[in-house]
Amino acid sequence: MLCLGVIAITTLALIPYSLTGSLEKRQPATVAVSATGSEPKAAKSRAVEPVFDAAVWYAARSEAPETHGVLIESLDHEKLFASHNADVVFNPASLIKLSTSLVALKKLGADYRFRTQVYADGKLDGDGTFRGLLFFAGSDPTFGDVAASMIAAELRSRGIKKLQGGVMVSPDFCFNFSESPEDSAARLGRALHLGEVTTGVAGGTAGSRLFAFDSYPLRDILLYMNARSSNFMAERIGATVGGATGVQQFLIDELKLPASQVTIARVSGREHNRMTPRGLLTVIRALVEEGARQGLRPEDIMPVASDDTGTLRRRLAGTGLEGAVVGKTGTLTSEVDGGMASLAGIVYTYDKGMIVFAILDQGNRIWDNRQMEDQLLAEVINSQAAPLAIASLEGRRLLPTSNLRIEK
Q: Would you give the DSSP letter of residue 388?
C-alpha cells in the first residue's frame, strides 16, 4: 500500500509538467518574418493585442465600425500599434498605385527609361528643308513639350530646319498626357516648330533611324505618379508590366496574398478594386525592401507629407509628423463604393524604426475622413514613438529636366 501511495503522489506531481509540455507544443513557433512577402501563418496566429484601440477611437466619434480599416505595425512585424478590420477588404482607391510601383520596380528596374525612336524617310535639301516623313515610335507616359524641344534642337543640329511632309507617331505614343495618338501627333507637329506639317498615326516606321529620346528614369516617374496620383501615368506604366491582371497575379503569386482578398480592376486605383489593410502593408514592406535592393529610399518614389508638392502637400500639418511620413493617398467619389479616402505608407521614428500603416475610410465625407486619418495616425505614433523628420526636401523638383537625354 505504501508503495502504491508513493507512485500515486509521484504521478500527480508530474502532471503539471506534462501539461506544460503539451501546451508549449501547441504554441506557434517564433518565426523570423521578412520585410516582404506574406507573413508566415505561425506569426499571424500569435495573439497580439494592439497598444492603441482603433475601434474605441472610431466609436467615440460615432463612426460605423465596418466602414473603417486600420493596421499600424513596426516594419519588422514585432510591434502592433493599432488594428481594426485588418483582414477586411476595402476599395483602396489610389493606394493601388503602390502595387503598380512595386511591380514596375521589380520588372523594369529603377533606372529603366521609356525610349522614343526617331526615324526619317525622305531627303534633306541644302537649305535645311527635309522633304518626307518623320516617325516617332514610343510609349513614354511623360513625353511632352520638354521632350519635343530637345528633339527639335537635335533635328536642327542635324541640319533639319524645316519639314515639308509629315509627322507620324506610333499607336501608343502620347503627348502631354493625351489619350489620343492622333491628338498627340498634332501636338508634336506644332511643338517641333518645323513649319506647317501633316500629322497622323502609323502602324510602323520607315526610313533610317536618326536617334532616340530617353525618358526620365523610372524612379523619377514613380515619384511624380505617386505625388500627383497620376492615373494616366499609372495606367501607362501598368500596361508595360502586364496591366491589372499582371499586377493582381503578382500580388497573389509573389507576395502570397490570398486570392480572395485581392481584386485589381485598374492599376491606377480607379473603379472597383479590393485589398485589405494587411495586404497593403505587405505591399509597402515589399516596396521598401525592393527599393533598398535597388539603392532607393521610400521617399525616392513616394512623396513626403507637408514637404513635397502633390496630394500630401497639406497633410498632417500641425501633428508633429511633418516630414516624417512618406506615403500615398487614395480618393474615390461617392459614385464608386459610396466614396473612399485612404492613406498608407511609412513613418520614420527615432526609437521604433520604420512604422508602416494603412488607414482606409469608406463614405462620401472625404474631407472628414482625411482629417480623421491624420488625427488617428498622429495619436497612435505620438503616443508610442518619437517621429523623425527626414532632411527637408524643400526645392525638390518632380521630373527634373536634367534627367532627360538624347541617345544618338
A: -
Is residue 197 in a domain? yes
pLDDT the model gives residue 394? 67
| pLDDT for 28 | 26
Indicate which CATH number applies to the domain containing 147: 3.50.80.20
User: Rounded distance, CA 137 to CA 202, Å?
Assistant: 9
What letter does residue 177 receive in the DSSP assignment? T
Instruction: Judge contact between 355 and 349, C-beta under 8 A.
Output: yes
Q: How many CA atoms are closer than 13 Å to the CA of 202, on its beta-carbon side? A: 16
152 shares its domain with 284: no
Cα 372 to Cα 165, 253, 333, 342: the distances in Å are 59, 34, 17, 10
Q: 327: which strand partners?
A: 345
Whole-number Å distance between alpha carbons of 309 and 395: 10
Is 232 in a helix, a strand, or coil? helix
- Tell how far CA 233 is from the center of its chain: 12
Half-sphere exposure of 235 (CA within 13 A, CB side): 13
The structure's pTM equals 0.87
Residue located via cell numbers 527634373: 400
Q: What is the pLDDT of residues 237-287, one digit of tens each?
A: 999 999 999 999 999 999 999 999 999 999 999 999 999 999 999 999 999
Question: How far is 330 from 93, CA to CA, in rounded Å?
Answer: 5
Number of domains in the chain: 2
Grid cell at residue 347 = 513613418
CA 195 to chain centre: 41
Length of the chain: 408
Contact call for residues 388 and 324 (beta carbons, < 8 A)? yes
Calpha distance 89→277 (Å, rounded): 8
Bridge partner list, 121: 133
Write the CB contacts of 46 (distance below 8 Å, at least 6 apart in sequence). 28
| Residue 325 grid coordinates | 511620413
CB–CB of 140/116 below 8 Å? yes
Co-location of 185 and 252 in the same domain: no
**Strand ordering across the sheet containing 68-74:** 80-84, 68-74, 354-362, 340-348, 325-332
Grid cell digits, residue 129: 528643308
Domain region containing 80: 54-110+218-384
Q: Which has more confidence, 25 or 147?
A: 147
All cell numbers assigned to 240: 508595360
Q: Are residues 237 and 370 in the same domain?
A: yes
